[in-house]
Amino acid sequence: MENQIDNILVFATNIKTENDKQKIIEILDANSEIHQWTIDQEDIDCVLRIVSDTLSEEQIIELLNDQNFKCSILE
Amino acid sequence: MRTRDTHKEEIVKQKAIEMLVKLGIEGFGMNRLAKESGVSVATLYIYYTDKEDLIKKIGIQIGQDFFNEMVKDFSPTMPFKDGLRKQWENRARFTIKYPLNVACWELLSHSSYRDCILEKSLLDFKTIMGDFLKNAIDKKELVCMPKEVFWSIAYGPLYTLLRFHNEGKSMAGTPFTLTKEVTDEAFELVIKALTP
To answer: Which of residues 103-142 of B touch A (CB under 8 A)?
Structure first.
């Protein structure tokens, strides 16, 4: 697969609706440290998947918390 | 540093194929797949972005495996009869060896994933088979006909026999195993129909 797995971070979130998604698109797209991101809203955990060489899990969680979304490391 | 466990990845792929065949695309889910493969949901999401991504990758992989098997010892410049015999051998071997993969392929190729999967995995194969038919017609070893007619006559009988074989019984419910004799008999009739 195309990415080094070390650079992939996955989170459980409450980004449930299309409206929610619109709110994070801008933030995540604008962040130059995020190479690629996807969210699986079909999944119960609305899994957010981030590809970044530099950002830590904590930094992503903070980013989402700032937008009033729940975000935790997916076990 | 986390390392990619290719063994685990193979288990996930095989399990996904099994589940897709058993539950269909609608019934198939990432959480259940993780549970049944003995990996965490997080691991699954490291490999694939979502269910759609996973299904596409699985489909493309099956298509590529199929393609690799089909071109074994085959060349589009072969005499028509030898080439078609090789295609029968390769298709029969793949179908008998990987019945689940074939069932999964069938399922996906009748779904909305069809175009994406076919385009990515079978492009080269289509070119090779196209050349094979063109050569055969040029050499007057094959009657000219629409490709759909060719396909149904050339492979229809084989796939019907393979279905009987996989089910272990024929249309009448009598026990059936595909032997070399039966295959040869059907093949000769197909050749009779297709050659000038």
So the answer is: none
Total beta-carbon pairs less than 8 A apart between chain A and chain B: 44
**Domains of chain A from N-terminus onward:** 5-73 (3.30.70.100)
Neighbours of B88 (CB within 10 A): 21
B46 in contact with A, Cβ within 8 Å: yes
- Joined together, the tokens standing for residue A32 give 């130059």
Whether this model's pTM surpasses 0.90: no
Tell me what the mean pLDDT of segment B103-109 comes to: 93
Q: What is the pLDDT of residues B50-86, one digit of tens each?
A: 999 999 999 999 999 999 999 999 999 999 999 999 9
ipTM over 0.90: no
Beta carbons of B48 and B54 less than 8 angstroms apart: yes
